[in-house]
Amino acid sequence: MEHPLEKFAFCPVCGSRHFVINNFKSKRCEDCGFSYYANPCSATAAFILRQPLPAEGDEEMLLVVRRAKEPARGTLDLPGGFVDMGETAEEGMRREILEETGLQVKNMEYLFSSPNVYMYSGMGIHTLDMDYLVRVAADVSVRAADDAAECLWLPLSQVCPPDFGLSSIRNAVIRFLKEYKGQ
After folding, report:
1. pLDDT tens digit string along 24-61?
2. Widest pairwise Cα distance in the chain
3. pLDDT-derived band of residue 66, with 50, 70 and 90 as boundaries?
4. Where are the beta strands (DSSP E) in the chain?
5. pLDDT band for position 125 (50/70/90)?
6. β-strand 41-50 against 123-136: which pairing, if any?
């Protein structure tokens, strides 16, 4: 596996080419002494559940989105994304849900986290993915926007992990279905 800072050839402080690997997650400038550490970015994903409508049976429904952009364009995903600078994880989660589905949510429950490497523009971005449970009313209205091409409500029994294009989301869905289904 390549070093997380392999693509960074110059010191960001002095511009020196003597920006060398210091340890498994940092590079150090031999000229000015600056060390840069590649710490993970924060990312979120939401398991948004609602009670079924009368015509849907009696099984809880999970909101999934279809990815509008690469990577994994066209595959299923959960609402979520990167936390912006200055945001808490919860603020970032609420913003991503609003941007992708139009839902304004207040309450959410932290479930679990997972380390991940998100491939973007040919570079592996190390992330710490934080997953949340959000419960909404049965009659909420959603609309796909931003990174979501489509919003779908699926009964939990019809959620198929291989349909999720990002391995980190697929693994989170597997874990959720195993640990939290029906709670």
Report:
1. 999 999 999 999 999 999 999 999 999 988 888 899 99
2. 69
3. very high
4. 19-23, 26-29, 35-37, 41-50, 61-67, 76-77, 80-82, 109-120, 123-136, 148-155
5. confident
6. parallel
The lowest-confidence range among 39-43, 116-120, 127-131 is: 116-120
Q: Hey, what are 80's tokens?
A: 């979520």
Q: Does the pLDDT of residue 134 top 70, yes or no?
A: yes
Contact 27, 36 (CB under 8 A): yes
Long-range contacts of the stretch 167-171 (C-beta < 8 A, 24+):
168/114, 168/116, 168/118, 168/127, 168/129, 169/45, 169/77, 169/78, 171/114
Q: Tokens standing for 171?
A: 């693994």
How far apart, in whole angstroms, are the C-alpha atoms of residue 139 and residue 25? Answer: 47
Mean pLDDT of the chain: 94
Rg (CA), the chain: 19
Which pair of structure tokens corresponds to residue 19?
A: 């920006």
Single-letter code of the amino acid located at 48:
I
Strand 109-120 to strand 76-77: parallel, antiparallel, or no bridges (unpaired)? unpaired
Asked if residue 116 lies in contact with residue 129, where contact means CB atoms within 8 angstroms, the answer is yes
